Amino acid sequence: MEMFNVKLDSLNGHGRIFSLELLSPKLALLFSATTLAALISNFQSYAGFSLHVESGKTYMLRLINAALNEELFFKIAGHQLTVVEVDASYTKPFKTDTIFIAPGQTTNALLTADQDTGKYLIAISPFMDTIVAVDNQTAIGTLRYEGTHPFTPTSLTAMPPTNATPVTTSFVDSLRSLNSKQYPAKVPLTIDHSLLLAIGVGVNPCATCVNGSRVVADINNVSFVLPVTALLQAHYYKISGVYTNDFPANPPNPYNYTGAGPANMQTTNGTKVYRLGYNSTVQVLFQGTGIIAPESHPTHLHGFNFYAVGKGLGNFDSEKDPKKFNLVDPVERNTLSVPTSGWAAIRFRADNPGVWFLHCHLEVHTTWGLKMAFLVENGEGPSQSLPPPPSDLPKC
Ligand SMILES: [Cu+2]
Q1: Cβ distance 337 to 296 under 8 Å?
Q2: How far, in Å, from the CA of 50 to the mean position of ligand 1?
Q3: Other Cβ atoms closer than 10 A to 324
Q4: How far does residue 356's CA lie from ligand 1's centre (Å)?
Q5: Which of 46, 79, 145, 310 ranks highest by number of CB atoms within 10 Å?
Q6: Higher model confidence: residue 349 or residue 32?
Q7: Which CATH superfamily is domain 193-384 in?
Q8: Is the whole-model pTM more than 0.85?
Q9: DSSP helix/strand/coil, 125
Q10: Sequence ranges of the domains in the chain
Q11: How far is the CA of 248 from the centre of ligand 1 (A)?
């Protein structure tokens, strides 16, 4: 299997757009870090993924992390990348040699073929800065300049260590909204709903499990249970008994979130939504927790872009930390990694009526219950109201 799924579009004759779907290294070409060098020494016969470029041209790489459970590093030997967009929102351009991208995120970067004619390694490898096991594999491809002799050795690069937190921090800190006259950053400055969501894992009794218990995941101690009837359908047709409106805006039992955690790690099950009035402004403070192990959670909101106004390590300090929020040009996106043993704050305006999931984009965590939903009420008139389901909506 290939490392990437690739689509090509032409870019006004001067270069091309490459859409690269990054798969999990395990699903892609399997090369452990230790065998990578040996494989590359026989690289002449390697016939894997190859990206063809012409000297002097500039290309746009549209990257999406399509892996289920791995945050990834992406690198091309000998080349800088200029990041210009994330999650379909423009950023202030910045140069980097390493892109950090979480499942569900997209990143567009410009690549100029400004090195000597030859072959250069393209590689992805996982990021994991906690004790949770990860497949430490590197998947590789080749950037190949036109006119390269077939037996030219490939220029190599070293990937960051698996636990390279500083590389992720530096990348995330470089992301800023364009905030131009044409594309202003419309960060909500007053807040109608302020939520503190503690996200992580827990342990619940399980009569049929080997040890009598199983690991679950939760937000504010609620492990989300998917209903049989769709939430949106229940909301539109006013079907009762599908969900409740009592999703808690704060952890029910506050504790030292990034410390050892409470002795009782049990969660409650529920299908709960948090209601928002049309056009209300929302701040969500995601607080990572250390139960079993702290972990980076790539958290995704449906239905909206949000502004990532702040982040930090340890427990959020409601006195000091808001003073450091960036309310001028914070990056606008729809998925962000809440740092391991840390917190992240977002703001958005609830101007899209309907029911919208908020969940960890690691498949393992979302299926364990690390999700909730916002129910955004209608405003005034049809343009601010949820449209009816299409007439051909399949009926189960
Ligand atoms: Cu997670």
Answers
A1: yes
A2: 33
A3: 12
A4: 18
A5: 310
A6: 349
A7: Cupredoxins -  blue copper proteins (2.60.40.420)
A8: yes
A9: strand
A10: 4-174, 193-384
A11: 19
